[in-house]
Amino acid sequence: MQDLTKLDTHFAFGKNWSSFARSVGEQQISDAVAGVQKLVGGLSGARFLDIGCGSGLHSLAALRLGASEVVALDIDPDSVATARKVLSSYAPDARVRVEQESVFDLTPARLGTFDIVYSWGVLHHTGDLMRAIRNAASLVGDKGRFVFALYRRTWTCSLWRLEKRWYSAASPKAQKVAQAMYIAMLRLAQSTVGPGLKTDKPAGEYRGMDLLHDVHDWLGGYPYESIKPESVDRLMAELGLVRERCFIRDGWRARSGFLGSGCDEYVYVRP
How far, in Å, are 134, 142, 210, 251 from residue 185 at the CA level? Predict the structure, then answer.
C-alpha cells in the first residue's frame, strides 16, 4: 500500500505555484492580505507559522500585517524555492525562514510554539488529515490561534478522490482536456444557476490564483480528504482549542460537491 504522506505520491503543487508566482504583483499581495486579515485581524508582534506555504503569499501577507517573525514550511521543494523568491523580492529585510518540512515532522520541542499556526487548504492534501491537524495544533501557544481551511465532506468526495488520483498521474495533454471540460461545466453552471455561483469559487481561488492555475490545483489535488464542520469542532475540543470564528460555506455547491465543495475556514484559540 502506498504511503500517501510521502512527497512522491503527491500532485506537483509546487510546480503549479512556481508557474503562478510569475504573475504575482501588488494586486495578488493585497488580496492575500485581505484574506488573512479577515481571519485574524492584525498580527502586530506575532510569531507566525505557515504550514504548506505554497507561493509564500500568505507569509508575505502576515509580514505586512505586522508579524515579527514568520516560519514558512512546505514539503514540496518547488514551493520552498518559490516562496523564498517571493519573500526575498517583497520582504528582503524581514525576519523570515522558509524550509522544506513535512507537517508530520514538526514538534514544539524543535520549533517552539506560535501565536498563529496557519494552514489554508493544505492539511487535507497531506495523506493523513487527522494526524496532520493534531500535529499542527500542537504548535499553537497559549492564547495562540490555529487558522486553517479544509474541504467540506460531501457525497461526491469519493468520486473526486478517484479523479484527482487519475489526474495527478495523467499526461499533460490529458490534463489539458480535463481542464477544458471542467471549465466548460463551470461556465455552464454559471449561466444556468446564475450570479450566485460566481461567489462560490473553485477551491484555491482564495489563495490568489488565476483561473487556469486554480483549476489545475483543484483537479490535481491528490492526496485528497475532506471533513464536516461538526467533526472539526469535536477534534478541536479534544485538543483543548475553542472556536473563535469560522466561515462555513453554504449553497447548493457546498452541499452537493458538484464542481467541488470548496473550503470551510476555521479559527480556534488556545485559552
Answer: 37, 46, 17, 18
209 is a domain residue: no
Tell me if residue 45 falls in helix, strand or coil.
coil
- Whether 75 maps to a domain, the answer reads yes
Main-chain dihedrals φ then ψ at residue 267, nearest 5 degrees: -130, 120
Q: What are phi and psi of 26, to 5 degrees?
A: -65, -30
User: What three-state secondary structure class fits 20?
Assistant: helix
Residue 147 grid cell: 487558522
- In this structure, is residue 186 part of a structural domain? no
Say if 165 falls within a structural domain.
no
Provide φ and ψ at 8, rounded to 5°.
Answer: -70, -10
pLDDT tens string, the chain, 271 residues long: the values are 789 999 999 999 999 999 999 999 999 999 999 999 999 999 999 999 999 999 999 999 999 999 999 999 999 999 999 999 999 999 999 999 999 999 999 999 999 999 999 999 999 999 999 999 999 999 999 999 999 999 999 999 999 999 999 999 999 999 999 999 999 998 888 777 654 444 344 433 445 678 899 999 999 999 999 999 999 999 999 999 999 999 998 877 777 888 888 899 999 999 9
